[in-house]
Amino acid sequence: MEHLIVHKSGQLKQTVNFSEESLEFFDRRSTISWRHTFFDHYEEASVILDFSGRVLSINPAFGKMFDCTQKELLGKPLIFPFRNLQQEFYKMVQSVLNGEKIVYQQLLRRRKNEDQMFPAKLTISPVFSSEEDIKGILVIIKDQTEIDEYKTLIELQNETLETEENMLLDITKHIDELIILFDLEKNKIIYTSPAFERKLDLNLVDLYNKPSLLRKRFDIEKPKQLLHFFKCTNSGHRTLEFKATDLRKNKLRWFLFEITPILEMDGTVKRHISILRDITELKEKNNQIKQLDQLGAIGQMAAGIAHEIKNPLTTIKGFVQLLSEQAKSEYSDIILSELERIEFIMGEILLLAKPQTNISFKKENLNKIILEVMSFMHPEATIHDVVLNRNLAPIPAVSCEAKQIKQVLINIIKNAIEAMPHGGNIRIKTYYSEGFIRMNIIDTGKGISKERLQRLREPFYTDKEKGTGLGLMICYKLIEDHHGTLHFTSEEGKGTCVHIKLPVAT
Ligand SMILES: Nc1ncnc2c1ncn2[C@@H]1O[C@H](COP(=O)(O)OP(=O)(O)OP(=O)(O)O)[C@@H](O)[C@H]1O
Ligand SMILES: [Mg+2]
């Protein structure tokens, strides 16, 4: 047969004629040397054994792994790496003789350091001759130490992740902020923190299945704006403040919504995490601070002008009285009553401005104070066709300055009378509950709208032609000086209830 011999450069060197026999020799030789080259350079430790487990050949990687040479082992049973494995080895030989390939994990020993076992993966397969007969058994040994270390590392990481996850869950369990994880693609809430259940009494599972439940619980002021804000796929961090009425408690609340999008690898936003904070108390405190600021300004102003006004006022009043004695005029009474009104307003402003240093708190019976105020206010109420009723339960004493509590009661009763221009009823109730004495002053007047309710403690907030808008502000201040609280509930057209809570005297 003619063969072309080509030079490395690609140029034809010569044509040669080989006999069939010599070609077969070349073929066999090349196969054998190819197999050898492969076996010798294979980087996993490999050994070829005969059926009784004697070594026929080892590769350099095997020699290196077990610290031995081909010469040393040739024809000898391979025992040391396996030691306790002889029985099983013969079973395996049987399987391999049936042409099967077996893979299994085993702890092996090195020759030098016999005490140290290492995990290995053994691949045992038959070695075929060119006639397809099984001539021996090839054992490839792969050191698993690093892989096992890797596994332990992963296990360790998983454990850490698990503890971190538990820690995170623990944290979310106890924080008061409401956390929502939202899937924008599925349009579904995937996580809500336990605070939802604790604070809003909303069941998490229910909320998962029916996000609309949130809307039933709260009357949100601008729901469309809120929905747009929530579903927007913007990649930036954003916040929104919104008002909502807690329908169960009929109370207006302020919330701060903070959304942080979770960016995917491609920069798109498929989910976002939002934190919802109830900032009602913060808002109320801020308002109080604003009012206190206003109060401070009023105080400074009042201190300044009171001195300036008081003296000329006394002089004017004296002269008007003198004039009215000499020549009685129809205007002198008006002038005098207006002057008295100015004096009254000055008194109110000074009460707010002056720090109360000489207050003496005494143990008093609130019911007794109420009865005195009721008899004092009776003529005023009767003129306006208002009936004063009472429901006074036996209550423990409070520690208070009776004069100040009387002033609070007078201001509130006056407001109630003024809210009923065509007459009505005022009921004063007292009772004891949980360490506090509660007092309710309930009228059947025109009521107060939600918006106005928020502003009652602002100075000069009035809807009356001759009102100062300071009455309630003084009430709030005096009750808070007594470590109590004051709040309003009202329904327009039906009436108003003033709730006062004072601590029991110790
Ligand atoms: N019982 C009530 N029913 C309806 N509105 C009320 C009632 N109490 C207070 N208000 C509203 O609150 C506002 C503020 O009351 P506040 O006592 O501070 O001032 P005023 O009554 O207007 O003025 P002043 O007390 O100096 O006469 C009132 O103008 C009124 O609109
Ligand atoms: Mg008033």
TrEMBL record:
Alphabetical keyword list: ATP-binding, Kinase, Nucleotide-binding, Phosphoprotein, Transferase, Two-component regulatory system
Histidine kinase domain span: 304-506
Ranges for domain PAC: 238-291
Molecular function terms, GO-annotated: ATP binding; phosphorelay sensor kinase activity
Record SUPFAM superfamilies: ATPase domain of HSP90 chaperone/DNA topoisomerase II/histidine kinase, Homodimeric domain of signal transducing histidine kinase, PYP-like sensor domain (PAS domain)
PROSITE patterns the UniProt entry points to: HIS_KIN, PAC, PAS
Domain PAS, first and last residues per copy: 47-82
Pfam families to which the protein is assigned, alphabetical: HATPase_c, HisKA, PAS_9
Nucleotide-binding in keyword set: yes
Reactions catalysed: ATP + protein L-histidine = ADP + protein N-phospho-L-histidine
InterPro entries: HATPase_C_sf, HATPase_dom, His_kinase_dom, HisK_dim/P_dom, HisK_dim/P_sf, PAC, PAS, PAS-assoc_C
Enzyme Commission number, as recorded: 2.7.13.3
NCBIfam families, per database record: sensory_box
Protein name (database record): histidine kinase
Protein's organism: Lederbergia galactosidilytica
